[in-house]
Design goal:
alpha/beta; Aspartate Aminotransferase, domain 1; Aspartate Aminotransferase, domain 2; binds pyridoxal-5'-phosphate
Length: 400
């Protein structure tokens, strides 16, 4: 039979980061020594006390359906966390637990966006945002930021993107892929514009606890009550507690929106995994020593790799304030050739590094910036050293 896929399915792009991960896996399976800078998840183990909470949940038979929007105990733990870390007050009706924050974000999109709506997405952006917005027939409006400005949004750029169709602004601080964090004055500017123009704010704070050089995360929702009322804070246990596979994310925002998200979720996935919810309670309320140790180690690697990259003539790499990615500008090499084949863009550069240096990176084009590559330092120091040497050698071999 002839299958006619929906236009939604035909137009959706697969996740580029997962695609790179699949290629790396295949190469490794073939026995090739690959240095993987493509990873979007911590290379640390989920802390033991979190695993124990899940094991206890299984032993105690906590293995059935739960309330679709999450168990009360986890909602309370999230409320405690948002108060403790972000100074934000919510009640349980303003909180939903989902199957990862990617799912929380899609619930937001389904509950709020439709054909004709424009959603502002600053670039570089995490690939999923634009795809999810398109999946619900709305339009992402990309607002570029500049490397020279530390990838920070300017008021002029944001203002000029707002039209009568603009429904929301999507923020991600610290940012995947640049690691940039939105400074306080800028958060205030964005908040003021959102209030002035009556826009919703979606604040993806997945990397909030991975910050460096004394930078501390601040949620835009905590600026004042007027902003909090129009903001949906999205967060996850994935990155801070090395729990990517457990699939627990959450959102907090106006009760009316959370209720709509819960209704949609109840018809699509029902509850997030019962056992993982218990583990998330332990993560949010338990000791944070492992997280602190992880940040120290990420910082060590970050500094090392920035130094190595900036020492390569032709590369510039800004100092990211958070997350676990570097976003070096490699466009100085565009036009140079390897074996007579010129490299013209980030996809060709990533392919060149994969083929010749066996180093996995993600092309910046996937994040809305073709001048860059995204390198994740969520891999051991030893692999980072090897990878840096290989990149240096491969780029040194390019000829004009
Ligand atoms: N937000 C950002 C910016 C991310 O980079 C990711 C994952 O890479 C997520 C959200 C989703 O994380 P999860 O669905 O595991 O909570």
């Amino acid at each position: 039979m002839t299958v006619h896929l929906s236009s939604r399915a035909r137009n959706a792009s697969p996740s580029a980061t997962l695609a790179m991960a699949a290629i790396a896996k295949q190469m490794k399976a073939e026995g090739i020594d690959v240095v993987d800078f493509g990873l979007g998840e911590p290379d640390f183990e989920t802390p033991d006390h979190i695993k124990e909470a899940a094991i206890t949940a299984i032993r105690e038979g906590f293995t059935r359906y739960t309330a679709a929007a999450g168990i009360d105990e986890l909602k309370q733990a999230i409320i405690t966390k948002l108060k403790r870390d972000n100074g934000l007050s919510y009640n349980p009706a303003e909180v939903i637990v989902s199957c990862g924050s990617k799912h929380s974000l899609f619930n937001v999109a389904e509950a709020l966006f439709e054909s004709g709506d424009e959603i502002i997405v600053p670039a570089p952006y995490w690939v999923t945002y634009t795809e999810q917005i398109r999946l619900v027939d709305a339009r992402p409006v990309i607002v570029p930021t500049r490397e020279e400005d530390g990838f920070h949004l300017t008021r002029e750029a944001l203002e000029s993107a707002i039209t009568p169709k603009t429904k929301a602004i999507l923020l991600n601080s610290p940012c995947n892929p640049t690691g940039a964090m939105i400074p306080l004055e800028q958060l205030r500017t964005i908040a003021a514009l959102a209030v002035e123009r009556d826009l919703l704010v979606i604040s993806d704070e997945a990397y909030e606890s991975l910050t460096y050089d004394g930078h501390a995360h601040m949620s835009i929702a905590s600026l004042d009550e007027e902003v909090r009322k129009r903001t949906i804070v999205v967060n996850t246990v994935s990155k801070a507690y090395a729990m990517t596979g457990w699939r627990i994310g959450y959102a907090a925002g106006p009760a009316e929106i959370i209720k709509a998200m819960s209704t949609i979720q109840s018809q699509v996935t029902s509850n997030p995994t019962s056992i993982a919810q218990k583990a998330a309670v332990a993560a949010l309320l338990g000791p944070h020593d492992d997280l602190r140790a992880m940040v120290v180690e990420f910082d060590r690697r970050r500094k090392y790799l920035i130094g190595r990259l900036n020492a390569i003539p032709g590369i510039t790499c800004t100092n990211p304030e958070g997350a676990f990615y570097l976003f070096p500008n490699v466009s100085g090499f565009y036009g140079a050739a390897a074996n007579g084949h010129p490299i013209r863009n980030s996809a060709e550069m990533a392919a060149y590094l994969l083929q010749t240096a066996h180093v996995v990176s993600v092309p910046g084009s996937e994040f809305g910036s073709d001048a860059h590559l995204r390198l994740s330092y969520a891999t051991s120091m030893e692999r980072i050293r090897t990878g840096a040497e290989r990149i240096e050698r491969a780029l040194g071999a390019l000829r004009r």
